[in-house]
């Protein structure tokens, strides 16, 4: 570890310091130094974030060589209110200073701070999958991509449908979109908030942004005129000769009812002169194929990890969600970094159904009892939102327990919908 180089905090409102910090972080992601416009956007985005830098003297000048950004944000969990987590981002070390322990120092210091501050979880999106397992993170949501062939799209007669209306939204008018997204992200495990700065940046369409120069946003309203879905897409002319063959790329599609969801997909897949739609960062249990007479009109894949979680407080993390199954298990959670390891009793009694949806509240407490299941802190993070099969982890040798207890874990942690996070942060 390179203990000689000091870690310092950066004031996110200090433009000069932020420029040095952003120049270093962008270089590690192979990008040029920020323009003044990009810096303005960054200032707005990170105004209340925690920025860390490591500096070194390079060519006689002190420069930022490593960066980390963290902030508090809510992640939706099964059956309960979203949980505030330590969101980790912009973890970079310049190639000249890599593999000297700088990331390890910055990240472990921040995780300790978050745990001491009472947060039960940390979250991030990994640039490369091998980096974060050693820090106790595990994959909590997965996403996939779709290609829809419009010539084969026909909705089933029983596909949900309701009266409503569609309208184009002018660039920059994002209030209705933000409201729809906020309702949708709370309703599904893995959902992540988008603040005003996120929407302001999304509203500025153009090259290299959320929506390109041919971007459009269409809002759906229900019969009463209340917004209940939107789709944001870009168009490209991919015709050959006189044969029309435009392609739509969906940047974002969010709906709070299946009928609005259907209306938006029906809209995009029936635009004249457009023959196919692509969409990335979609849920692995996307509804669209189930709505179609020919589900092969939707080609799905690949599936990749998206949101990673790190448990900082085992009792807090297990208590934050609700469960559909009932059961009692003693879990020994092993944490090689020594931040959160604990042996706990998770008890979910049948019949204590809190609300009409069948979610059950758990009782969770530390215990000296012998464990039924021994698992790593990263494996617990993977199970927490219901996105990873306990049976698969058991078969992979990553849970130490009987097959029956792995099955019991599977029943306890399963969720009706796959967890999904479509928001980069
Ligand atoms: C990824 C990155 C931040 C790692 O920083 P670093 O200071 O070199 O990391 P550390 O020296 O603290 O490494 C800690 C351990 O993780 C391992 N590791 C680090 N980066 C890794 C990678 N990309 N793949 C696999 N292992 C990696 C190291 O080998 C080391 O292992 P060890 O403890 O067994 O020796 C840095 O290489 C970087 O900025 N890469 C480009 C930008 C990026 O991908 N950032 C991540 C954003 S999510």
TrEMBL record:
| Keyword Transferase appears in the UniProt entry | yes
Question: Tell me, what is one Gene Ontology molecular-function annotation carried by this entry?
Answer: aminoglycoside N-acetyltransferase activity
The residue ranges crossing the membrane are: none
Q: Which Gene3D superfamilies match?
A: 3.40.630.30, SCP2 sterol-binding domain (3.30.1050.10)
Q: Where is the N-acetyltransferase domain?
A: 5-160
A biological process from GO: aminoglycoside antibiotic catabolic process
The record ties this protein, via InterPro entries, to: Acetyltransf_17, Acetyltransferase_Eis, Acyl_CoA_acyltransferase, Eis_dom, GNAT_dom, NAcTrfase_Eis, SCP2_sterol-bd_dom_sf
The record ties this protein, via Pfam families, to: Acetyltransf_17, Acetyltransf_9, SCP2_2
**Binding positions for acetyl-CoA per the UniProt entry:** 91-93, 99-104
Q: What start and end residues bound the annotated signal peptide? A: none
Q: Which UniProt keywords apply?
A: Acyltransferase, Transferase
Keyword Zinc-finger (UniProt): no
Catalytic residue list: 132, 425
Which family, according to UniProt? Belongs to the acetyltransferase Eis family.
Subunit structure comment from the entry: Homohexamer; trimer of dimers.
**What protein am I looking at?**
N-acetyltransferase domain-containing protein
């Amino acid at each position: 570890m390179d203990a000689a180089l000091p870690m310092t905090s950066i004031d996110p409102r200090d433009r000069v310091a932020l420029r040095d910090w952003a120049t270093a972080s962008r270089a590690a992601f192979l990008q040029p130094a920020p323009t003044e416009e990009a810096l303005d956007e960054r200032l707005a985005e990170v105004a209340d974030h925690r920025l860390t830098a490591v500096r070194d003297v390079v060519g006689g000048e002190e420069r930022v060589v490593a960066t980390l950004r963290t902030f508090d944000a809510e992640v939706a969990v099964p059956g309960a209110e979203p949980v505030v987590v330590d969101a980790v981002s912009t973890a970079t070390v310049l190639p000249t200073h890599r593999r000297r322990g700088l990331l390890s120092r910055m990240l472990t210091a921040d995780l300790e701070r978050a745990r001491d501050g009472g947060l039960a979880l940390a979250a991030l999106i990994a640039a490369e999958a091998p980096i974060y397992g050693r820090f106790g993170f595990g994959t909590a949501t997965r996403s996939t991509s779709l290609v829809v062939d419009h010539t084969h799209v026909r909705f089933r007669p029983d596909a949900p449908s309701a009266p409503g209306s569609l309208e184009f939204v002018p660039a920059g008018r994002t209030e209705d979109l933000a409201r729809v997204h906020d309702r949708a992200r709370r309703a599904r495990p893995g959902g992540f908030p988008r603040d005003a700065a996120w929407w302001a940046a999304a509203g500025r369409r153009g090259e290299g942004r959320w929506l390109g120069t041919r971007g459009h946003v269409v809002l759906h309203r229900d019969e009463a005129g209340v917004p209940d879905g939107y789709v944001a897409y870009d168009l490209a002319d991919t015709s050959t000769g006189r044969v029309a063959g435009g392609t739509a790329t969906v940047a974002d599609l969010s709906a709070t009812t299946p009928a609005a969801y259907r209306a938006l997909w029906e809209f995009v897949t029936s635009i004249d002169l457009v023959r196919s739609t692509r969409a990335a960062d979609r849920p692995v249990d996307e509804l669209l194929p189930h709505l179609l007479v020919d589900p092969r009109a939707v080609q799905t894949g690949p599936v990749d990890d998206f949101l990673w979680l790190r448990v900082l407080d085992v009792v807090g993390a297990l208590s934050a969600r609700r469960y559909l199954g009932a059961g009692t298990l003693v879990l020994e959670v092993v944490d090689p970094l020594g931040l959160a390891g604990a042996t706990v009793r998770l008890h979910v009694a049948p019949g204590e159904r809190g609300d009409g949806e069948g979610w059950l509240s758990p009782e969770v407490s530390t215990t000296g009892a012998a464990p039924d299941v021994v698992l790593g802190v990263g494996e617990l993070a993977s199970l927490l939102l219901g996105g990873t099969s306990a049976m698969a982890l058991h078969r992979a040798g990553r849970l130490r327990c009987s097959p029956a207890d792995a099955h019991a874990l599977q029943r306890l942690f399963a969720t009706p919908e796959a967890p999904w996070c479509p928001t980069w942060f």
